[in-house]
Amino acid sequence: MSNLRTGGQAAVDALEAEGTQQVFGLIGSATMEMFDALYDSKSINFIGVHDERTGTHMADGYARASGQAGVILAGQNGPGATNLVTGLAQAKAAFSPVVSIAGMLSSDHVYRDAFQEVDQQSLFTPVTKKTWTVPKADRIPEMFREAFRLALSPKQGPVQVNLPRDVLSASAEMPPMQSPQHYRGFSLPAANHEAIQSAAEMLAGASRPVILTGGGIKNSRGAEDVLALAEALNAPVVLAPGHGDAVPYGHPLNAGQMGPRGNIVASRLMKEADVILALGTRLGFNSTFYSYDNINADAQIIHVELDPTAIGRYFPVAMGIWADARQTAQQLTDAIKTQQAKADVEAWTKTFQDERQAYRQKRDDEAIMTPHPMQPSGLFKTLRQVLPQDAAFTMDAGTLCLQATDAMEYWTPPSLFTPLDFGLVGFSFACGLGVKLAMPDRPVVSMMGDGGFGMTISELSTAVDHGINTVTIVMNNQSWGAEKAYQRDFFNGRYIGADISSPKFDQAAELYGARGFAVDQLGDLGDAVAAALDCGKPAVIDVAVDPAALYSFRRDSFKHRGG
């Protein structure tokens, strides 16, 4: 039976074969055959965006929240393709399985300084796991299949497929599509018996054990497995920064996020632990700043990672285990159930739990609840009180969002989506739209500064047009807060480029057809949040935060200035 299809039809057939439900994209003349085929698709919902960068953040958020690949389609070669780069670099830093597709100029025009010509193969190679340029129409099914397989295989990450115009318009007899189960049924490596027994003995012999949990547990939805292990050991669970939702907030062994941007209780545990079980985390920059200031130099580290190059890369380890973190947690639990609890471990954990409770109480007691100007601590306390426990949060980079990341409470994994190591401003709102499409029954709250929201406000049209009802809280301090703090603390207040002027975001939201709320008094915040969650539309809450409430996170970067 003939299967004569154009390249554009074959590309959409390949997406359907992968079970793709959402495609984010911006139309362009380079991929008209593919858009025409999308018109006929009964199973794919196309979300038209206003910028390829923010569309990539939507695909990124969708991928992280759903566990499936997020798909972004840049319809135009040249500028449409270059706009993808920031979003793909962000997805790579987050190990997010984004499949990015871009049109490309006709094969005959390559290297002729053609209209909108750019070397897309070279452009995307550094910011993806792999980049393909499809040479012939009948290779499209094969390369799309490979793109999804690679994006979703450990360690996950973004991939790029370039589709020349002539390849999309050509007709060819296409090979039959394959079901993903036929080529994606890989099993993850598991630790061998000897490694598990040795690790179990080290943990059982510890007086001050800590389980450090990162993205390897969060992304595999392994919270229950880690908590079963923690309960068997009666050991605190410390969370890597940006993965504060890896286990539910309310569990008594959850210590919260560690490190220079974490809380003091979790950070102390890492500085005093004698055995650290690092499960699915690289012990990288955001956790440690690569410094023994943030981890006990005398601790024995058992490092469990799917990426073998990450094991022991920054800190020497007593034992490295190349394996899936979730499976390893299960194996260790079985091995440790026979161990006798130690009295000093009981004391260690009881002390931590008392400190954790005192820290939470102090955080609430010392929150500054003055009505105006609004202080971050009062803002965060109010949000903790009024937001539902199943809320999912997206965060931007910047000083207020970095504070919010540890100040919010994440009860229902996955609940926290941040730029992680890429530190990207302008990420949160667009990411939240993707998260909401993946988890439509959960409230999604996107927290941003006024600078970041100003970068991405045009996607309010996308949210309104497609009924993607997130709540965006703009913490408006009229500045690029992190940089202004550094200028204040280390450059004698010589401010340049640090202040921002913006429209009234609540009024702008109404013009887009969304709901807008302005909050100048802390006492009005709770009602505004409740109304935003209940309004049945995308909502923006413009919250006036004290412009003087600035905090320098990266003090280490300016030690040379004597600050």
Question: Could you please describe the fold and organization of this structure?
Answer:
The chain has 563 residues and is an alpha/beta fold. It folds into three domains: 4-182, Thiamin diphosphate (ThDP)-binding fold, Pyr/PP domains (Rossmann fold); 193-357, TPP-binding domain (Rossmann fold, 3-Layer(aba) Sandwich), CATH 3.40.50; 367-561, Rossmann fold. Helices cover 39% and strands 17% of the residues. The protein has 23 helices and 20 strands. The protein has a six-stranded parallel sheet. A six-stranded parallel sheet has the order 11-10-9-12-13-14, sandwiched between helices. Strand 12, helix 13 (285-288) and strand 13 form a beta-alpha-beta unit. The longest helix has 23 residues, at 343-365. The chain is globular.
